[in-house]
Amino acid sequence: MTVWQQAEILFGLIVYTVVWMRGGPPERLAVGVLLIHNLTSFVTWRWEIEASYTASMIRESVSLLIFGGLWFRSNRWWPAVMAAATCLLLLTYALWMLHAAVAHFAVASARVGLWFLIDLVLLLSVFERWVAGEPPAGSAAWAKAARATAAKRRAASPTAPPTPPRPSVP
Question: By C-alpha distance, which of 70, 43, 73 is closest to 58?
Answer without folding.
Answer: 43
